[in-house]
Amino acid sequence: MEERLNYAKVSPDAMKAMRELEKYVAASGLERPLYELIKTRASQINGCAYCIDMHTKDARKAGETEQRLYALSAWRETPFYTDRERAALEWTEALTLISKNNVPDSLYDSVRKHFDEKEIVALSMAIIAINGWNRLAIGFRTVPGSYNPQ
∠ at Cα 79 (128, 70), nearest 5°? Predict the structure, then answer.
């Protein structure tokens, strides 16, 4: 696989805007391990190898276990995640696959049990951000494997 375009180099202003969104989410109070689970799960759904590589590395650095990372694509079938994480993962899937569902009230009500309104906005912005990054990395064929957490 060969990279089609280095979007960060071609358009640094676009990257600045994306990084500002990331800064907002990082400062929102969402737990870092949860944030990395969200990013990894959306990237799995979208098939973004670069982002899966990046966010599983970042998740490990944030203290995530191998077991939970390996089971993430089957999170409903395991006892490894908290109710709060389950709500976030279900919200992630619904927003990532929004063209296939109408994000039912029952899901929103479930998320609302575990997140306050500000957290729901932060959670949604995190999902929006990773879906944007996925589309950039997939569209321009960013080559996975080179990312090293700082």
Answer: 60
Stated pTM of the model: 0.94
% of the chain beyond a pLDDT of 90: 93
CA atoms within 13 A on the CB side of 88: 29
Is it the case that residue 146 has pLDDT exceeding 90?
no
| Total number of residues shown for the chain | 150
CA angle (137, 42, 69) in 5-degree steps: 105
Domain ranges for the chain: 12-139
CB-based contact 72:44 (threshold 8 Å): yes
Q: How confident is the model at residue 1 (pLDDT cuts 50, 70, 90)?
A: confident
The structural architecture, per CATH, of the domain 12-139 is Up-down Bundle (1.20)
Tell me how far apart the alpha carbons of residues 133 and 23 are, in angstroms, rounded to a whole number. Answer: 14
